[in-house]
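Entry type: protein chain
Record version: 2
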Amino acid sequence: MKLKIVDSNYSVVKLSSTEKIPSWALNADVSSITRTDEELSIVCPTECLPMNEAFKDVENDWMCIKVEGVLDFSLTGILSTLANPLAENKISIFAISTFNTDYLLVKNHSIEKAKVVLENEGHIFSNI
């Protein structure tokens, strides 16, 4: 599978499920907004977060790995071919799936190890 490391640092923010989606969450090429009855979860580049706001629940220092291309809904096991080797090597992930493809967030300090692990599994990272 062809993968790409997105050139940004990411944060994962948890807000109250009743909050409106903040405008800063919409200012990125890659972001994810998920609302449940328990929370509003936002993933976006750290640079999008307002500097003057202190978040109670935020996880910083993530890098994003994108699965290149459009994945057909009939395909199975895509995420597991990425997540399982990383888990076996004690690398935690935050996964995001979209209509087209999958994204994995990996902590900055583990991104190089994650790349090696995934390359050893036969995945190819693009240099673009």
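Comment: The chain has a mean pLDDT of 92.
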